[in-house]
Amino acid sequence: MHRSYSVEEAALKLGVHKNSIRGWIKSGLPTVDNSRPTLILGAELKAWLDKRRKAAKRPCSPGTFYCFKCRTPKAPALGMVEYKPMNDTSGNLIAFCTECGTMMHRRARKEAIEANMPSLAIKITEAKPSIIERTPPPLNCDKMMDT
Question: Does the pTM of the predicted model rise above 0.70?
Answer without folding.
Answer: no
